[in-house]
Specification:
Elements (H helix, E strand, L loop, with lengths): L1 E5 L3 H13 L4 E5 L10 E3 L6 H10 L4 E4 L2 H5 L2 H7 L4 E2 L3 H8 L1 H11 L6 E4 L2 H11 L3 E5 L8 E4 L2 H12 L11 E5 L4 E9 L4 E3 L4 E2 L2 E3 L3 E4 L4 E4 L6 H21 L6 E10 L2 E8 L6 H5 L7 H9 L15 E8 L17 H4 L4 E5 L2 E4 L2 E4 L3 E9 L2 H14 L13 H11 L1
Parallel strand pairs: 1-2, 1-4, 2-3, 4-5
Antiparallel strand pairs: 6-9, 7-8, 7-9, 10-11, 10-16, 12-15, 13-14, 15-18, 16-17, 18-22, 19-22, 20-21
The protein binds adenosine monophosphate and glycine.
Length: 430
């Protein structure tokens, strides 16, 4: 079997690692792989964004399965192009990927299908947006509708902050085209949960829910990032909550997309807020979350490959049920100095053997590259280290120790991944 993974980050390293586990004899290929991915897959010298070149390459190389990690190529229609050329691909069409690529579209779909989410309005005109902000008052959340690498949502405590955010998006175009339409919505209070479903367009196989840590600083302070860490399982995600997410969010969303003639086949990511009023959708993504995938996938006991192949080949997931190890996983992201702002590249990384030899620690590379035998930083998020343990505290300890032991100049990471869950544990014991 010949498998291509599209993408270059930590999520894609985790996907490759799982595919290698599930198909030890397969030929694996990856687009411009980071140094970790390069140990598992042959390098394809075409970037994830070059959809036409990748389509030609995959068809000529007789790729049996392509798995697309990031949202940008999906929104650009990579799955449509691959299918058109007869390459089986795991990932939604561009039309279905609008659930992530256009927040305005996602909100409209949710309103139509009666899916619980924050009240909102969509604007392209600044004056109208400002009038709405004045009328509603803070706190509000102002979001660029298009793709903005996880940085397009501004949580505003006051209407002055919301005015500033809407103005920079609509007038100054800080997010370029992505911000020419903005969604302004009610601020929701509660804990967030990332719920992933592998879907054939109808059936939703819900994976173990995880919790992300979006802020750069400990105790969830400082600016938003792509994600500084994640853990699973989450005790808040009881069977009732998962059932509700499936019945009230995932299945109605899939039905609504099918009814519009764009069934979603791939990984549907629901970012949920557990509010006092029940669960509500914060956002949808059309792909695995990063770094949640690096925590969830290592706990998956059943085959990832079989689910992906079934969906990619247009089959049905009916009757399948993924199974997970009874263990906890904590993933800590190691970031470059300055991230999520500007950061330097090319700093040498050392990973001690105490980390690489530990069977309970997995190192997933993100922004790394190898040059003249040296391992160097090449991105804002450099690596994600996952610790596995029988309890969350044990897993967190392993992840944190490994994160501390890996060395590069300017490294920073959060030492408190999983803190909400551990605080709950303490409260339950008291
Ligand atoms: P998004 O780009 O929509 O995923 O938003 C990024 C982050 O902003 C989310 O993970 C939340 O932490 C926060 N956020 C987004 N929308 C809301 C909201 N309506 N209420 C509170 N926080 C929000
Ligand atoms: N970790 C959040 C995301 O992947 O969008």
């Amino acid at each position: 079997m010949r498998i291509l993974v599209v993408g270059t980050g930590g999520r894609e390293h985790a996907l490759l690692w799982m595919l290698r586990r599930d198909a030890p004899g397969a030929e694996l290929y990856a687009t411009q792989p980071n140094a970790g991915m390069a140990t598992l897959a042959h390098a394809v010298p075409i970037g994830p964004g070059d959809v036409e070149a990748l389509t030609g390459w995959a068809a000529s190389q007789r790729i049996d399965l392509a798995v697309v990690g990031p949202e940008a190529p999906l929104a650009a229609g990579i799955a449509d192009r691959f299918r058109h050329k007869g390459v089986a691909v795991f990932g939604p069409t561009a039309e279905a990927a609008r659930i992530e690529a256009s927040k305005a579209f996602a909100k409209e779909l949710m309103a139509e299908a009666g899916i619980p989410t924050a009240e909102h309005r969509t604007f392209t005109d600044l004056e109208e947006a400002l009038a709405f902000i004045r009328e509603r008052g803070g706190p509000l959340v102002v979001k660029a509708s298009g793709l903005a690498a996880g940085k397009g949502a501004v949580v505003c405590a006051t209407s002055d902050e919301a005015t500033a955010a809407a103005s920079t998006m609509l007038r100054d175009r800080t997010f370029g085209e992505a911000g020419k339409e903005v969604v302004i919505e009610e601020f929701m209070e509660g804990e967030e949960l990332s719920v992933f479903a592998v879907t054939d367009g109808e059936e939703a196989l819900v994976l173990l829910p995880a919790q992300d840590h979006k802020r750069v600083g400990e105790a969830d302070t400082g600016p938003n990032t792509g994600g500084m860490g994640a853990y699973a399982p989450v005790s808040l995600a009881t069977e009732t909550v998962v059932q509700e997410a499936r019945e009230r969010v995932l299945l109605p969303t899939l039905r609504a997309l099918s009814d519009r003639g764009c069934p979603f086949k791939g990984l549907l990511y629901a970012g949920l807020m557990l509010t006092g009023d029940g669960l509500k959708v914060v956002e949808f993504n059309c792909r695995f979350g990063d770094p949640e995938a690096q925590a969830i996938l290592p706990l998956l006991e059943s085959s990832l490959l079989e689910m992906l192949v079934e969906v990619a080949e247009g089959g049905s997931l009916k009757g399948r049920e993924p199974s997970f190890r009874t263990a906890a996983a904590v993933t800590t992201v190691l970031a470059s100095e300055g991230y999520p702002g500007d950061y330097p590249k090319g700093r040498e990384i050392e990973i001690p053997t105490t980390v690489t030899d530990n069977p309970d620690v997995l190192v997933f590379h993100a922004g790394t590259k190898r040059s003249d035998g040296h391992l160097l930083t090449a991105g804002g998020r450099v690596m994600a280290v996952t610790g596995i343990g029988s309890t969350l505290a044990e897993a967190a300890g392993k992840s944190r120790d490994a994160a501390a032991a890996i060395r590069f100049e300017g490294k920073h990471f959060r030492k408190d991944i999983g803190w909400r869950e551990m605080a709950r544990d303490e409260r339950n014991k008291a």
